[in-house]
Amino acid sequence: MSFRDIVGHRHIVALLSRSIASGSLPPSVMFGGPEGVGKRRVAEAVAQALNCTSPALGPAKAGELEIDGCGKCPACTRIARGIYPDVLTIAPGETGSIKIEAVRDAIDRAVFRPFEGKRRVTIIDDADALVAAAQNALLKTLEEPPPSSVFILVTARPDSLLPTVRSRCSQIRFARLTSAEVADVLERDHQYPKREALAVAAAADGSVGRALNVQTGDFADARTDAEQLLRAARAGSDARARVNRAKDLIKGGGGPASSEREYLGARLQALSSLVRDLGLLRSGADVRLLANVDLRAELDALAKSFDSERALDVFAAIDRAQEALDANVSPKVVADWLALQV
User: Fold this and answer.
1) 318 Cα distance to chain centroid
2) How far is CA 121 from CA 33, 53, 132, 271, in A?
3) Which of 39, 74, 158, 338 is surrounded by the fewest CB atoms within 10 Å?
């Protein structure tokens, strides 16, 4: 994946491209940030830009790419497939950790000149899984890497690494993606229908990895049920009408109690996401922070009836409902109570 194919992180991508073009890319870099936001993909794009045989060159303008892998040459395609001899990716094994043997092998390889490309690139994915001995073994190489080698440590928990490791790396901090960006990745790379991609992205907290763990069709339906409950509350319906609406939060569960709890849990998650957005709108926050970007018109209408204080009260009620559900309170009791609090 080349820089131009990366979704989001435009400032970071432009910075890396400029550094590669000028020959100033640090030889030891740490990509830190939330899980599932594309850090490893950016690391692979760095490897492509460094070794592409037909690099795309652009104008030296702020925010634009000065160099990028073409994505089509043998080097780029083999890097993407993970079979390029000068790009090594180390990841946790079956034990969930990265042993010292894997690190020693990478260090031994880094000493030699590139076999085929211009630079040797070692990507250590989930670097926080490095055992202490492996981290210590890396120190000298990170401080004085061979001239043709680049080490990129990718981690969602940089503070879990030894301070001596962190201090030897130039650190680049990745932020969460916007909901729209997550949805774009789901549509482009995972063939999600647009409606489901937008719905799932709203619950993903800026992480494609988290979005892929959400049941797509189920969450889209859950969001619809949650929105209808908020509409009923906005209309000022009486207690009986709200309790009737609460049936939509549990009626599809059926089967064992665990299934009913999962069904209601998805609707609590969707409701929390919608109420969060209502609070953002009433507080005048940047609308780019909205999770449910595709429901902007509906949210604007709902926000007229949910001021910041009411949104906070509902948000707290959702948290209490989730706690009750986790404590094995009947899903019907939880749904009825919540409907009266909205």
Assistant:
1) 24
2) 20, 16, 22, 44
3) 74
Residues 6+ apart with CB under 8 A from 17: 3, 49, 65, 66, 67, 68
Q: How many residues comprise the chain? A: 342
Q: 81 is written with which tokens?
A: 């497939």
Place of tokens 């959702």: 318
Question: What are the tens digits of pLDDT across the range 131-188?
Answer: 999 999 999 999 988 889 999 999 999 999 999 999 999 999 999 998 889 989 998 9
Confidence of residue 252 (pLDDT cuts 50, 70, 90): low
Q: How far apart are CA 125 and CA 106, in angstroms?
A: 13
- Is 207:182 a contact under the CB 8 Å cutoff? yes
Provide the token pair at 117.
């490309």
Distances in whole angstroms, Cα of residue 257 to Cα of each of 188, 264, 271, 334: 36, 11, 21, 13
In degrees, rounded to 5, the angle at the alpha carbon of residue 2 between the alpha carbons of residues 195 and 15 is: 105
Q: Tokens for 235?
A: 């209309």
Residue 29 CA to residue 168 CA, distance in Å, equals 8
Question: Strands 87-90, 120-124: parallel, antiparallel or unpaired by DSSP?
Answer: parallel
Give buried/exposed letters for 73-96 (b at 16+ CB in 10 A, else e): bebbebbbeeebebbbbbebeeee
What's the pTM? 0.74
pLDDT given for residue 20 in this prediction: 94
Tokens of 101: 């043997």
d(CA 162, CA 292): 38
- List Cβ neighbours of 6 (8 Å cut-off, separation of 6 or more): 13, 38, 41, 42, 45
Cα-based distances in Å from 189 to 45, 78, 184: 16, 19, 8
